[in-house]
Specification:
single chain, two-stranded antiparallel ribbon, 31% helix, 13% strand
């Protein structure tokens, strides 16, 4: 039985977090691919600061993106800590989804899948989550929970249209120009290992991970 009091508490906390958007994904929509024991994914979106180049820019500054990403990650880490604390207090089993492994370039669960199921955006030709108002210049955090507030309306198609500016901007030639749809494999959109090799060869790590956001800078969404 749905506990409306618990859902109200979770919703109130989410509404008060310093994130730009949040949403709930109904993992039942994934059928047999859903993580065992979890019914919903709570997805948080933090936008990068205005210090990064504007949408559609041809100017790219790695240090600026690194600083903006790091700041957004801190907001998400603090927000997730508060959310997990509440879920633990309510006795709701939960698990924070972590980012991809830097060797295998894969993750136990795709956060973009949860975000699209929650109605927060679609996956662009650059294989990044694209959100109205922010484009791909966002960071994502996801917490799986046994149950929680009702899921949002999933996004089921790409809104990129014929735009391929990110594909043209990729110096590694890693973007394949494919169009996202639910269930499509990552390899149809990007050669992740070609992207990673170029990043490691051309961009200093700045003490975190190798990062190239040329495709994100080129995206015109969010202006």
């Amino acid at each position: 039985m749905v506990d409306m009091r618990e859902n109200d508490e979770i919703t109130a906390l989410l509404d008060g977090l310093p994130v730009e958007r949040w949403g709930t994904a109904d993992l039942g929509r994934l059928g047999g691919c859903a993580p065992h024991g979890y019914g919903v994914a709570l997805v948080l979106i933090a936008a990068l600061s205005p210090s990064v180049p504007p949408p559609g820019s041809t100017r790219y500054e790695e240090a600026a993106y690194h600083a903006a990403e790091t700041a957004a990650a801190k907001v998400l880490n603090d927000s997730v800590a508060a959310l997990v604390g509440l879920l633990d207090g309510l006795g709701i089993e939960n698990f924070r989804v972590h980012g991809q492994d830097e060797v295998t370039l894969s993750a136990c669960f795709q956060q973009k899948t949860a975000a699209t199921l929650a109605g927060l955006g679609w996956t662009g030709r650059n294989s990044m989550l694209v959100c109205d108002g922010f484009g791909p210049r966002v960071e994502i955090a996801t917490v799986l929970a046994a149950h929680g507030p009702a899921g949002g309306e999933p996004v089921t198609e790409s809104l990129c249209g014929s735009c391929d500016l990110c594909v043209e901007a990729c110096p590694a030639g890693a973007l394949k120009g494919g169009t996202w749809r639910p269930g499509i494999g990552r390899d149809a959109l990007i050669d992740a290992f070609a992207c990673d090799r170029w990043r490691r060869s051309h961009i200093p790590s700045l003490g975190r991970k190798h990062s190239c956001w040329l495709c994100a800078a080129a995206c015109p969404v969010g202006g």
